[in-house]
Give the backbone structure.
Amino acid sequence: MKYQEIINKGSKILKLNNVKSYNLDSEILLSSLLNIDRSRLMTNLQDKIKDQDKKIFFNLINRRKNNEPISYITGHKEFWNYNFKVDKNVLIPRPDTETIVEQVLNYLNPLCTKKVLDIGTGSGCIIISIVKERKKCNGVGIDISKNAIKLAKYNAKIQHIKNRIKFFHSDIDNFFLYKYDLIVSNPPYIKLHEINGLDKDIKNYEPRIALNGGIDGYSKIRLTIRKSSALIKKKGKLFLEIGSNQLMKTLEILKSNGFYTNIVVKDLANKNRCIVSTKI
Ligand SMILES: C[S@@+](CC[C@H](N)C(=O)[O-])C[C@H]1O[C@@H](n2cnc3c(N)ncnc32)[C@H](O)[C@@H]1O
């Protein structure tokens, strides 16, 4: 069977099972299996697939058919300029979260030597991207999930910066190490009762601990801001991701914890996504 034919078969199965991006997903799964990029696959559609690969391909299609996110199946996700290993223990890095990285890089000049803390680091995507781009900065990433920390360490290693980031397995509530020039965080901020209404890809596969913001959606935002207030240096900056409808209340929480809001940044969909504030 030729690549084109097997892509069509995979795509048909996904379409019948209501996977929206059926064609693209079928192509991505085949290129991942063949270990070639999609553009190369597209120029070799008349090549024949090996019999043993055929079976593996339909296994991958089957996983996608059951709504497993494509990034968990391929085991990686592009974020900022880098490729991150991901698995079911971490949230899949979102393009919206690149807003934090962009704001931090606008703020930090290329030669500065700052110490940056990432609260709820997950795959490590935020802190690793920042430390890669600012060669003289050092980072600390913490997460309540032991497996997330393992993965973040692996990602720092493959990006050759493991000596510039320390990772700690810890609940932020029990973390007291050092003082930071900058804190970044994308805390869990979905209301508990809204999790079941999310897409199956998310609610059935992504870690609850990475999504669950408690009854009102603010429990981890409050905790992150309260702890940041203690861990940040005076005049240090906090870069916080929020849900698009969480702006006003988060601004109040920031104010009551001694932060002055500098700017609110919208994401690619023009929704309020990132608050930059200063500890006064
Ligand atoms: C929304 S995910 C963000 C992951 C990653 N920073 C990103 O942007 O893709 C939130 C992360 O916070 C972690 N987390 C949840 N509660 C925490 C706590 N009390 N202390 C430390 N980390 C926590 C979760 O394990 C998860 O990895």
